[in-house]
Write a structure and sequence with these properties.
7-stranded mixed sheet, about 550 residues, Alpha-D-Glucose-1,6-Bisphosphate, Chain A, domain 3, alpha/beta, single chain, 7-stranded antiparallel sheet
């Protein structure tokens, strides 16, 4: 086996976003495209010689060929050991857990998260650092800078590695260790949750239904819920990862996980339902005929954390992304802990978790997690809920309704306008920014603007500043409108509008959220002129 040095030229479009480099599969299949990016990672993250690297992906189309390329480039770059998930499968949370457990220098996750897969779908490459979390901006910037000047990469000329069979082999000097995709992750979950109690719950009358949407969470869900926790076989649907996710959109929300929604809202519905996204870091929680918003889910987990063994000594603090509803802030205030408000994107939680300022964190976009790893974690959220349900012996709906009675209800909704043209989307945001200074004090019907800004975040740990993180318009009654452009789409632009109002009165906790938020929907249309500027009458997805 020999190392080949291949001359190449920069491909000029390899700027990693919040979730790594995410592009159409076809982009990654261009000559040298993946190779350039992977070599740029290895050139930027310090001395890798002799170190351990973790590699795996969500099983989407191009996962296997990409892994072979990465293994051969890694071997040519002198990496000591590579832990690869069997068949190339590792969920994002499992990768984070494995990096931490084995003190790996980092990991490469192959996923485009909830974006569709298949030959015409998307692919992605994300580098995580030694704390198990996504590379911070200074690292992704260094990688990007490298991609702009790269002129060669090194690759081992060798036959493909068998990644189907567990065990160790050599690739040049590098040890390739094919690991069980689930084992380390399951062990971590068993250390946090009361598995005996959940087992009792699931082997009794309490019925759950899990939809893995043909994506990476399937093997984890089969092993943990069915094999370990006593749920009947068949509890997990769509549990075998498919390269094209069965043609679906592996995003656990009310639109894309509609099969599960139909089950939970249908005849003889089970007590609990959950779905995950492509790489297993997102979750949607449903009760019988009941949807738990991700923002409420975070607040409920925080309020009940002491019931769960891994969190029984209490929380250091909580953190939520700025557009996430303020429900968790109310819990934090009651417990007497800090609630941090960060920009959108999981990476902003890393410092707070490392510095032990926050224990739980979450985003409105179906992401929930804790200090056990440095990524959001779909299965973890479900186990947390099941642990609470096993202790409280109430239904999901009862638990959430009692929560609202105690803390008040934060009505919440997100309206997405997907694949709009980039130019008008930018115009809309620029125009909105220009209006901000004049909005304060303005009256819209019963609503008076208390503040309006473009969110800026100063990291309390390292002092770094992130500006222009989304337009916020806050009203005197605690309601909020947030408008921002997605940073993860691959086609055109996606406009996200977040709406929130607060209702303390339990007699008014039964409204349909769209109805409760209707006045704010009218106001944001008036201020941002969404219809006029995007040409869209309706959002694509309402959550
Ligand atoms: C979206 C979500 C955000 C999440 C990110 C990665 O980003 O809104 O909360 O962290 O995906 O999963 P966006 O497309 O809004 O930039
Ligand atoms: Zn994801």
């Amino acid at each position: 086996m020999s190392i080949r040095k291949v001359s190449t030229t920069p491909l000029s479009d390899q700027k990693p976003g919040t979730s790594g480099l995410r592009k159409a599969v076809k982009a990654f299949q261009q000559p040298h495209y993946l190779e350039n990016f992977v070599q740029s990672i290895f050139d930027s993250v310090g001395d890798l010689r002799g170190q351990t690297l973790v590699v795996g992906g969500d099983g989407r189309y191009y996962n296997r060929p990409a892994i072979q390329i990465i293994l051969k480039i890694a071997a040519a770059n002198g990496i000591g050991r590579i832990k690869v998930g069997q068949k190339g499968i590792l969920s994002t949370p499992a990768t984070s857990a494995i990096i931490r457990k084995y003190q790996a220098i980092g990991g490469i996750i192959l996923s485009a998260s909830h974006n569709p897969g298949g030959p015409n779908g998307d692919f992605g490459v994300k580098y995580n650092i030694s704390n198990g979390g996504p590379a911070p901006e200074k690292v992704t910037e260094a990688i990007y800078d490298r991609t702009k000047v790269i002129d060669s990469y090194q690759i081992l000329e060798a036959p493909d590695v068998d990644i189907e069979t567990l065990g160790e082999s050599h690739l040049g000097e590098t040890v390739i260790e094919v690991i069980d995709s689930v084992h380390d992750y399951q062990e971590l979950m068993e250390s946090l949750f009361d598995f005996d109690r959940i087992h009792q719950l699931l082997s009794g009358n309490f019925r759950i239904s899990i939809d893995a949407l043909h994506a990476v969470a399937g093997p984890y869900a089969h092993a943990i819920f069915e094999q370990r926790l006593g749920a009947p076989v068949g509890t997990v649907q769509n549990g075998t990862p498919l390269e094209d996710f069965g043609g679906g959109h592996p995003d656990p929300n009310l639109v894309y996980a509609h099969d599960l929604v139909d089950i939970l809202y249908g005849e003889n519905a089970p007590d609990f339902g959950a779905a995950f996204d492509g790489d297993g870091d997102r979750n949607m929680i449903l009760g019988r005929k009941f949807f738990v918003t991700p923002s409420d889910s975070l607040a409920v987990l925080a309020a009940n954390a002491k019931l769960v063994p891994g969190y029984s000594s209490g929380l250091a603090g909580v953190a939520r992304s700025m557009p996430t509803s303020q429900a968790v802030d109310r819990v934090a205030a009651q417990i007497g802990i800090e609630s941090y408000e960060t920009p959108t994107g999981w990476k902003f939680f890393g410092n707070l978790l490392d510095a032990r300022k926050a224990t739980l964190c979450g985003e409105e976009s179906f992401g929930t997690g804790s200090n056990h790893i440095r990524e959001k974690d779909g299965l973890w959220a479900v186990l947390f809920w099941l642990n609470i349900l096993a202790v409280r012996q109430q239904s999901v709906e009862q638990i959430v309704r009692e929560h609202w009675q105690t803390y008040g209800r934060n009505y919440y909704s997100r309206h997405d306008y997907e694949e709009i043209e980039t130019a008008p989307a930018n115009t809309l945001i620029e125009r909105l920014r220009s209006l901000l200074p004049n909005l304060k004090g303005k009256q819209f019907g019963n609503y008076q603007v208390e503040y309006s800004d473009d969110f800026s975040y100063t990291d309390p740990v390292d002092g770094s500043i992130s500006e222009k993180q989304g337009v916020r318009i806050g009203f005197t009654d605690g309601s909020r409108i947030v408008v921002r452009l997605s940073g993860t789409g691959t086609q055109g632009a996606t406009l996200r509008v977040y709406l929130e109002s607060y209702e303390p009165d339990p007699a008014k906790h039964d409204l349909d959220p769209q109805q409760a938020l209707a006045p704010l929907i009218t106001i944001v249309e008036e201020i941002a002129q969404i219809r006029e500027l995007t040409g869209r009458e309706q959002p694509t997805v309402i959550t």
